[in-house]
């Protein structure tokens, strides 16, 4: 793998491409000029232009999509047909299902969606903990990307795709409960978590587990993923989406929330995983917890949500390039070795 096309030069996409450019030949693609100068060429073009994509993608060894979930499928299809490696950040279950169906027909390269934080890093962490047990009981995974200094009743800031947030708040969530794979409603399953003396809430959101329910079905009693927020957020989102029935007007609710809660510079990403089970005859519990803050990269300040998401996908690309992951077919996040992930140049950011 030498040349990579990165599609989407927003906050995360521009950092993904910048990190990859330290090792690979990179070109970006976006319909707008980048907000700041970047160390590689950015092709100006509309990602919805299928003819343009069919011309560009075959010129590269791999394509990384940093676009909203609803724009990924065409990119993945062209990469698949061209025999090029494909990576994305989607949390959308139908998109991932469609990409898996492509891979099942036989792919000449890697198809690796869901390479962000959740799904993505949290699944890699959860599987690493689970592998330490002889027999599993519970796997509970939590991630929160939050303003460090919240204000207002929502206690939130849209530091990543509003379309992605609304999508995971509306779609049903896969879980394993009482040993059976089920669907539960997003924004339900409210619980309270105390982290370093601070109180948070967590509730079910869609897509965070990726393919883990399939992988662990029959092996665990409980498997679930929940998003961490400041207390009261879930109740207010239910009011907006269901009492005001804005769930039927996604573009409007995205516009309202983006206008009301713009990105902040000081944010924090919480990654928390708990696994319980037996090690031989002993019932034990393993935990992983990290709080990631903004980071200076090449002299530039990057929000925690931006660099953690970007570093997650770049580390997976590096692993494929280094032959530490399969070179063809669909890659599940929980099949990625966490130790090898952390050994990559970009994975070291998480140490």
How does this structure look, described?
The strands form 3 sheets. Strands 7, 8, 9, 10, 11, 12, 13 and 14 form an 8-stranded mixed beta sheet that branches. This protein starts with a strand and ends in an 8-residue tail after the last helix. Helix 1 runs parallel beside helix 10 (304-321) and helix 3 runs parallel beside helix 4 (93-104). The chain is α/β, with parallel strands linked by helices. The chain contains 11 helices and 17 strands. Helix content is 31%, strand content 29%. The longest helix has 18 residues, at 304-321.
Q: What's a quick, concise take on this entry?
A:
The chain is α/β, with parallel strands linked by helices and 351 residues long. It has helices at residues 11-20, 50-56, 72-82, 93-104, 121-130, 162-170, 212-216, 233-243, 250-260, 304-321, 338-343, and strands spanning 3-7, 25-30, 41-44, 62-65, 85-88, 110-112, 135-147, 173-177, 180-184, 191-195, 198-204, 222-229, 267-279, 282-292, 295-297, 300-302, 329-330. The strands form three sheets. Strands 7, 8, 9, 10, 11, 12, 13 and 14 form an eight-stranded mixed β-sheet that branches.
